[in-house]
């Protein structure tokens, strides 16, 4: 079952909690020395570390990818038994499933009155592009980015939409830019959680004015459901199912506030609008899109999987329960990193440190980090934990709530072992 990221569900993940990580015991080194013509024993002050033994336990699931992410604990394909396969997505049964998904999404996220939800094409990327192509250009735009995806949104606004008045507010990987530079009279585009840098927006987003004139477009794909979002400050929120929920890829979600809807109905961009980006008809919001109709055909199997994930969130106690479990997972890594000198968080400031996509750097050259990754994969301990291609060399470990703390504890033992093997 090598490489399977939901096999742990059948093995009963979480049924037995492993003991805490053992610390290596340093033993003083006794060595012979010559003095006054006779042999005597000297106790050295140096404390070389004992050799790190190969761990005897492995994570029950090796899936720590930051997307697509591990399926929920206990997952099996039986969860898809009620999917209306072979039925039209316009059938009464299918539309009922879509409406259920929208209703449960609104309830779990605690969306305010008047906020609308829809499934859209092309994952989170499609949802962000849909918002930018439909709404930007009416006023200047502030783009805040501190990792690769946010930088991509900046590039699209400048090179594709060719908006003239664009302010770039940026920071290096591991840092957060000065978000107080955002002008409330401008539109703003930003990521809530930088999936490739492990840096998130601090809770509350106080830098967003309650009296703003512009709209806020927030890519929240690796944060939503695992981080509390201040909905009154967010006008467009996008995400996909394959991050915190452990759902399937290719489908995107878009959430619109009344302010965002007003922008759609009052502003027509000067460029042609592709069909998959259209949210209005005859100058008004296409309400059918937010009531069970879709722009293009959806996979009803994936919708069923999304419903299963939402019900899992409900069973955990909603967003607070998911966030608490994710924070507990992060704590496992914080305890490990805090007691070792050779591994570090890319986000050194814990106030901006992600509790989902956790990025680490190591005191190793890039090729040695690659050796570590290969050893961990060969042992079926950890899959797909390499840092993003544009990020500093290191590891990226998913700590969302679909991952179990005891699996992270086991992984930490293997991180220490493989580090000692390659250094």
Automatic annotation (TrEMBL):
**So, what pathway does this thing act in?**
Amino-acid biosynthesis; L-serine biosynthesis; L-serine from 3-phospho-D-glycerate: step 2/3
User: Which SUPFAM superfamilies does the UniProt record give?
Assistant: PLP-dependent transferases
Some GO term, biological process aspect, for this entry: which one?
L-serine biosynthetic process
> Keyword set for this entry?
Amino-acid biosynthesis, Aminotransferase, Cytoplasm, Pyridoxal phosphate, Serine biosynthesis, Transferase
* Gene Ontology terms, MF aspect: alanine-glyoxylate transaminase activity; L-serine-pyruvate transaminase activity; O-phospho-L-serine:2-oxoglutarate aminotransferase activity
Under the heading InterPro entries, the entry gives:
Pser_aminoTfrase, Pser_aminoTfrase_methanosarc, PyrdxlP-dep_Trfase, PyrdxlP-dep_Trfase_major, PyrdxlP-dep_Trfase_small
Q: Name one GO cellular component term.
A: peroxisome
Its family? Belongs to the class-V pyridoxal-phosphate-dependent aminotransferase family. SerC subfamily.
Recorded hits in NCBIfam families, A to Z, give: PRK03080.1-2, serC_2
User: What's the protein called, per UniProt?
Assistant: phosphoserine transaminase
Task: Tell me what organism the protein belongs to.
Answer: Rhodosorus marinus
Upper lineage is: Eukaryota, Rhodophyta, Stylonematophyceae, Stylonematales, Stylonemataceae
